Amino acid sequence: MRRHRSFVYCLILVALAALPVAAHAAGAIAPHRAVYDLSLAKARSSRAASSVDGTMTFSWKDVCDGWSITYDSRMELVFPERGSRSVGWRYTAWESNDSTRMRFFLQRFMNGQKTLERRGRARKGPDGGEAVITRPEKRTLALETGTMFPGEHSRALLDAARKGERFLYAQVFDGTGENDGLFAANAVILDEKAGAGHDLDSPLLDGTPSWRMNLAFYAPGDTDGTPQSEQSVRYYANGIAGTLTLDYGDFVVRAKLDKLTALDRPDCE
Questions:
Q1: CA-CA distance, 174 to 181, in Å (whole number)?
Q2: Which residues contact 186 (CB under 8 A, 6 or more apart)?
Q3: Contact indicator for 67, 95 with CB cutoff of 8 Å
Q4: Cα→Cα distances 262→75, 127, 164, 186, Å
Q5: What pLDDT sits at residue 48?
Q6: pLDDT tens, position by position, 233-249
Q7: 191: how many CB neighbours lie within 10 A of its CB?
Q8: pTM for the model
Q9: CB distance 178 to 164 below 8 Å
């Protein structure tokens, strides 16, 4: 099985860079709360999970000086030889409007017990920057020039899609997964839909253009080996992700968009 790249980033990708700097190109990004039903899409070996059941909930909020996300997931997996296992993730983050600063807090759970708590912050500029992990122990990671924060990366993906570009490679830092949250993302942008055939009957999706995207996640600087994980998503121009497939090697999880709610924007004057 591939190493854990975490469900968290796929939903951070959903958040998009819902930042005012992108509004002139794409119209208003939609603050929202999305709920996804998790199920097993495919098992590739006898050691793979034979059943997956769970829910993940994601919200994006405009907080005037940037954007914040809250992510929560609980999933029950059944393995033929190892029995059942309950896993969960909880993640909150803030990213500044100019994508030069971010803060994050991550927790992981296994069978009801907390197995990881990670907290940190990051800052960068034209010549790179650094991320400071403050929990579980303090350490500093250098961020090379061109490293993107998650909102910035998502904005770049949609900008590339609108321009008709098919590929985007970037080093990204979000604080989740292996390597303390630093990883390489290789995206392939596929077909575009002009608003038809959306994932859910919702005013937030009606008439909204979207693109199908495949993403592969690697250790920093490594795109020659096997990805840590892969995913496919229908990504809407207003920053909402439709149904996702999350490939972990031995098995594939389907995250079906089930509920979608618009959130109010604050008065930032």
A1: 5
A2: 167, 168, 169, 215, 216, 217, 218, 223, 227
A3: yes
A4: 25, 37, 28, 30
A5: 80
A6: 888 888 888 888 888 77
A7: 9
A8: 0.85
A9: no
